[in-house]
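GTPase Era
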Amino acid sequence: MSETPHKAGFVSIVGKPNVGKSTLMNALVGEKLSIITSKAQTTRHRIMGILNGDDFQIVYSDTPGIIKPQYALHESMMSFVRTSLEDADIILFVTDIYEKHDEDDVIKRLQHANVPILLLINKIDQATEEEVNEKVAYWQEKMNPTEIHPISALHNFGVEQLFARLLALLPEHPAFYPKDELTDKPERFFVSEIIREKILLNYKKEIPYSCEVVVEEFKEEEEIIRIRAEISVERKSQKGIVIGHKGEALKKVGMQARVDMEEFFQKKIFLDLYVRVNENWRTDQKLLRRFGYSE
Ligand SMILES: Nc1nc2c(ncn2[C@@H]2O[C@H](COP(=O)(O)OP(=O)(O)O)[C@@H](O)[C@H]2O)c(=O)[nH]1
Ligand SMILES: [Mg+2]
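Tokens:
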């Protein structure tokens, strides 16, 4: 038996949209659990990624980017951020080298936390050493966090060192989840997220933000997983766009999603996609609950 005490804790990954929170979580966990696109508001939920070792368990939470809520959907997204912060033993406040913090509300909120805050300056692959040093000085002055780490989540630069610091700061505690668990979310969640990622990549303007995906059927057979999923849009005109001329657009989304699902589940996938109009689902509390935004 090992003599080292067991450590476990919750690490909350928060920050503005698009700074690389999901990329970082995937790098830290070593699995693609969170979808990533160049669009803001890609992440709508709190997604836990669990990293297990013999004598530690780190429960990361990837969260939606912090924004001023405009819809009931946004309010639910921000409540995911709040609970994640409340649970945190360590906070990873992600910024990137482009970020200009003009509003101070995020910083004020974080300064109330009485757990270590590691401020990350991400995307340093796109900056000079001088620019990075300037950002370090800026954040030191502005916020004085527990630690500052310049990293590149995309290129795995500085991620190992960050992980070592997390292990050192982690409290002594038994594991919170079974040691073979990778996430708190069910398989269906990852199915809908993969489809949402392809929607974000294939459509422009407001379309991706008007879509939500519900998995109606997930049937695992010996050789294949059969999946039926429904894409909700807010208006009839959007339905036409999502389906596309002769169904080509939707077919493309389905093909791309299937490839990723086969990789994720390591199994052949049959995917059936439908589009339905659910008027104004982003402001409809009942529909939001059905879509899993009930926190
Ligand atoms: N150049 C560069 N781009 C990055 C890095 N990390 C993330 N990105 C990109 O930034 C965009 C947003 O990433 P994502 O993880 O979805 O950000 P989130 O909204 O904070 O979760 C994507 O296009 C990523 O590929 C990095 O270290 N360097
Ligand atoms: Mg994200």
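The two ends are 41 Å apart (CA to CA).
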